[in-house]
Amino acid sequence: MKPHPKIIDKIIDSVDASQSICVVGHVRPDGDCIGSQLGLGLALINQGKEVTIWNQDSVPDKLAFLDPQKLVQKPKKDRKFDLVIATDAASFERLGMTGEKIGDRKLFINIDHHASNTRYADINWVSPKEPSSGELIFKLLKAANWSITPAIADCLFTAVSTDTGSFQYPSTRPGTYHVAGELVKRGANLARICNEVYQSFPLARVRLIRHMYNKFRLVHDDQIAYFWLKRRDYTRTGSEPNDSEGLIDHIRAIDPVVVACVFEEVDPTLTRISLRSKSDRVDVNVIAGQFGGGGHPAAAGARIEGTPLATQRRVIRAIRQALDSNK
Ligand SMILES: [Mn+2]
């Protein structure tokens, strides 16, 4: 009897058997998504594959240095692919309109590290213990013996670094540092990555941070911190939704705070929430799940229908309950 091939071998065999490959990622892509998409995409190009890299949204400015060839495109028309690989996308819906354009494919592979992943593809490599999808891509490249060039190392290092909060989140494991070390050995340009990703925020974002510090609220013995981002806050500060990424870390980084929450107005009756937990006591993936969202124990999100006030009440109540039930 033939042994059941390990999933990673199945993925490598599928790539070998495919010529046209599309690599897709989630809406409003972050460093892990773009780094994983580009790191994998570049490796596949080096393998002589015909590669398309699609994301519904543009590459954030601070990550543009990873894509000098502008490989990441917005999907325009339906295309035929031998293989589509999704990276860092917890659900099919998270692919946004990209999902509508990849219908004609022979095989669909999902590579992700979100515990909430819905296993929507033909082959699902979901490993929630990994702190980033970038680490999964690194393992895939190593197992396949596909060369990790300095450009690929830049992409994967950015993925690993951003999704671990610069190697600070509890998800960071010894292996994460080994992967990072190996990526630096293979030419990841640390100075460039740190300067582009962490030291080059636009002034508009600083105005948004000022707004946040003026407006954030503390409740439940200062254990819950939250603030609202309204659409007018973006226009007023000259910023865009991309600029709000990571803002939540500022209120999370306050001593008594255990859970931080950002309410972002999508439209008057739709709110996007982001949640961060600093303690094992509170699993925000569970809280987000109560509102149809998900993520990780320490970082999760959801989109909630309803008036802003009702949404705020429901979410804060859920956080309070989580805090009180695990004292
Ligand atoms: Mn990720």
Rg for CA atoms: 20 Å
Q: Helix segment count? A: 12
Cα distance spanning the termini: 52 Å
The CATH topology assignment of the largest domain is inorganic pyrophosphatase (n-terminal core)
Give the strand tally: 12
The CATH fourth-level homologous superfamily of the largest domain = inorganic pyrophosphatase (n-terminal core)
Strand order of the largest sheet: 3-2-1-4-5-6
Give the overall silhouette.
globular
Helix vs. strand class: alpha/beta
Mean pLDDT: 95
Helix share bin: 25-40%
Whole-number tally of structural domains: 2
How large a portion of the residues is in β-strands, by DSSP E? Answer: 15-25%
Main pleated sheet: 6 strands, parallel
Which ions and ligands are bound to the chains?
A: manganese (II) ion
Q: Which architecture name of the largest domain does CATH use?
A: Alpha-Beta Complex
Low-confidence stretches: none
